[in-house]
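hey so u asked for the seq, here:
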Amino acid sequence: MTRSAPNSSIEVAIVGAGVIGLSIAWRLAQRGARVTVFERDAAGQGASHAAAGMLAASAEVEPGEEPLFALNCASKALWADFATELEAASGQSVDLRREGTLVVALTADDRARLQHHVAFQRGLGLSPEWLNAVEARRREPHLSPGLSGAVFSPDDHQVDNRKVVAALRVAAERAGAVLREHTRVEHILVEGGRATGVVVSGYPHRADTVVLAAGAWSRAIEGLCLPPPVRPVKGQMLALRMDTRAPLLRHVVWAPGAYLVPRHDGRLLVGATVEEKGFDPHLTAGAQLALLQAGWRALPGIEELPIDEAWVGFRPGSRDDAPILGSGPLAGLVFATGHYRNGILLTPITARAIVALILDGHADPLIAPFVIDRFPRAAAAE
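ran it, structure tokens below
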């Protein structure tokens, strides 16, 4: 558990009030820092609201992502205690569920790809369990009768991301952080070669440290000598409504073309597209149809479920789709952005590492591969 320390003389300005900005604010305020969080819209209504809340360090790992895998695993290991402490601090549940995740194959080709991925996972020291079709449907009886097989990842869980946002807001404010919503930061205030605060509505707000946690909007902040190469990656999702007394699904299920995430309240999330279309906010018929078709192929019973909601979110994707964490060339400015598909998963480790950097001067080796200096300056400025 994080304990208070004599840091009341330290003033920190955080740009962005998603799960990353709010969690950093909470942890800083717990240790006595004076924290103000600036949010251009309503707190937590960006990627944090649009996400699915999967904690899928194992199911999503790909070759070449070993440093990110290490970071993801370290953060996943923190989630149980983080959730417990957050619930105690806020008085609100975040619905951490530990049923595990099923990755299903529907065809022989799917099965071959999945078995290859299982071999890769085992090479990383993971222990995925291969299930034949009968075993998979024993766990989830409503999966397609034509199932070819599945992999069970027992350590990949989920949390209700919208409840996490709400709890973090309460916890941060109870700890003493100040939240200023609908307040756009115009630019970073730079004096004497270091960041000394932010400018809001033409007026300076002084700070010893500025944390850039504005997600997909991070590079729009002016005054950065090296803007982070973060772009919006559009994602469309929808939610169906299950009967809470007899839900169609209990595990998170990854299927070819879609994932399905059941919630305690009966919602079944189906997502998500990956579209390079900037900040295009529109839902499209084609994308929604593709998600529903992919979900239906894995779980045919969804055709009878009512549609509860559909939405668009903007993931903050960096040049290599890994986060940008830690200090950069401008003293006094700390980056905590570019989390792409892993913002919810990486919340605990990001907060811990950024707070340690600001208050203790300790750079966690886990975030060393993710500093902004890994990008050539010309590429970062594009």
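The two ends are 41 Å apart (CA to CA). Residues 66-90 form the longest helix (25 residues).
lmk if thats what u needed
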